[in-house]
Design a protein that fits this description.
The protein has helices at about 60-65, 110-115, 130-135, 135-140, 150-165, 180-205, and strands spanning about 5-10, 20-30, 35-45, 50, 70-80, 80-85, 95-100, 170-175. By secondary structure, it is an alpha+beta fold. The relative contact order is 0.19.
């Protein structure tokens, strides 16, 4: 099943709304092509939302529109209480949002460890390298391997691990399980669950 997911991975301060993301009447365009037609949904703190649909339904475009990576968009996109429709793309991650694209974006010339050192910090509370390696033992075993030498499942783990390093509270994961065998699909799922438990434990401590 192809999915695009939005996941809130860390508790927001008590004085903030429970709503992490609100999309209202979203329309998106690539040039003259009208791709999204009035999309509406929201993601609350601690909630996992999955977008379902056939290929070409607009799932990836929805996530790209949230990150302002499409030609033009109209409507309303509120992230952590901030209207972002007119916000520049490089400012949006600073609101505590992490985006994992379908193509993964792994630097092929760098090994796993070097890839994990690259992500910027967008919020405090990002996972340490030790925590990442404990969550994804395969990455530890392959930490000296170049990105292009990883299996599809390991590349997905690395793409997710880089996002978890940033401390982002809201994660947008595009086709995180695409092309993976069922036994491998479980690993990103366990990673999301473990990240959520770790964030809650961090806040409680």
């Amino acid at each position: 099943m192809n999915t695009a997911e939005a996941f809130e991975s860390q508790e927001a301060p008590e004085n903030q709304t429970l709503e992490m993301l609100r999309v209202q009447d979203l329309h998106a365009f690539y040039g003259e092509s009208h791709i999204l037609h009035g999309v509406n949904f929201d993601v609350k703190r601690g909630e996992l939302v999955t977008l379902l649909g056939r290929n070409g339904a607009g799932r990836s475009t929805t996530l790209k529109a949230i990150m302002n990576m499409v030609g033009r968009r109209t409507g309303s996109i509120v992230i952590n209480g901030n209207e972002t429709l007119r916000m520049k793309p490089h400012h949006i991650p600073r609101l505590g949002i992490g985006y994992c694209p379908e193509e993964r974006g792994i630097f092929a010339s760098l090994d796993v460890h070097e890839n994990l050192l690259l992500p910027p910090t967008v919020r405090s509370g990002g996972m340490s390298l030790d925590e990442i390696y404990a969550m994804f033992p395969n990455l530890y075993e392959s930490r000296k391997s170049q990105g292009t030498r990883l299996s599809g499942g390991e590349q997905q783990m690395l793409a997710m691990a880089r996002i978890l390093r940033t401390g982002a509270r809201l994660l947008l994961l595009d086709e995180i399980t695409e092309g993976l065998a069922p036994v491998i699909v479980q690993k990103p799922g366990r990673g999301i669950s473990a990240a959520k438990r770790a964030r809650h434990a961090h806040r409680a401590g």
